[in-house]
Amino acid sequence: MAGDGVEIETTKFEAPHPPVTSETDGENSAEMQSSSLPLSELHLELEGGTPPPAPKLGFQVYAIVIGLGITNLLAALENTVVAIAAPVILSDLQLGDSFIWITNAFFLSSTAFQPLFGQFCNIFGRRYVMFTVVATFMLGSGICGGASTGGMLIAGRAVQCVGSGGIVMVSSIILSDLVPLRQRGKFSAILMSIFGIGSALGPFVGGAIVSSTTWRWVFYLNLPIGGAAFVLLFVFLRVNYNKEMSFWQKLKRIDLVGNSILVASTVSVLYALSYAGTRYLWQSWHTLVPLLVGFLGLFIFAWLQTTSFSAEPLIPPRFFRTRTSAILAINTFLYSALLYWCIFFLPVFFQGVKLYSPRRA
């Protein structure tokens, strides 16, 4: 399939039909618009008829999926692997109460830059954006592994997660290009399962590494494995690049104002929540000012996305106009809130309070 100037070249697989562009009412509209099936076949599937046989996917597609799976596994591991190593890193680099930013910098960068990479894919194509995010992830891993100060480690984590968030975002876009709608759920489940397994294994891998060698291998481990995935994608992820638009024309399509406001507002809110009740009192201006400024910025960002000022909104409001999309967004927020505080804080509690070893914690 092709999307905004991007066409995946495969030797054994080609999308059988162009995307459906007709407009319909209800929640089936979004599904039809993103489908790789013709409208008649899509209606047949939706109405419970007998769908036509699925197109065969060649070796090249499976090789790309393997490459995407490896990169997603590494990104998932880095979400949680540092949690178990945090007390050792804290002691080695003398981080003090700044240790929270080992995790905050990671998830902040991921959250803030994921929508931007989605725009980059639509403007500059999938291939080089994917290479960029994988290389960025490996660069951040190298910086973290060689960190000699807490500030260097936090900066490396921020760089690492720019790549990690991009990997998750771009992988899903590439998968949607490669696989017809009828088979997309199966392949999406594969990537999501890999990501879930990586997140679950992170604390165990971190504990094993810290118990047997230096914590730096928590980050160095990404370099050889990520390099292998990079080579695999470089060989098999082939695309046609549309050069009809100039670089500056493409750059104008990026919502730079929206991205800047979103990043600044998120940093402001997260800073206030990180130090409220520990370094500063909740009623202190050090807490209230960045918190209020951050929420005001998020409100302005949401308003700008609905105006003509954003030619191509970073987060289009239409994503939240259906009940299904809104519920999915809320559930994702609740799931993340319940999961990640356990993953990060429980290992610190077991090692710092219960005095368990990293492996046992």
TrEMBL record:
According to the UniProt record, where is the region Disordered? Answer: 1-32
Molecular-function GO terms, alphabetical = transmembrane transporter activity
Per the UniProt record, one Pfam family is: MFS_1
**Keyword Membrane set for record:** yes
In terms of Gene3D superfamilies, this protein maps to: Multidrug resistance protein D
Q: Which UniProt keywords apply?
A: Glycoprotein, Membrane, Transmembrane, Transmembrane helix, Transport
Q: Name one GO cellular component term.
A: plasma membrane
Q: What is its membrane topology?
A: Multi-pass membrane protein
> InterPro entries in the record, alphabetically?
MFS, MFS_dom, MFS_trans_sf
Q: Where are its TM segments located?
A: 61-86, 98-117, 129-148, 154-175, 187-211, 217-236, 256-273, 285-304, 325-350
User: Where found, per UniProt?
Assistant: Membrane
Please report the stretch or stretches of sequence annotated as the Major facilitator superfamily (MFS) profile domain. 64-361
What name is this protein filed under? Major facilitator superfamily (MFS) profile domain-containing protein
Species this protein is from: Cudoniella acicularis
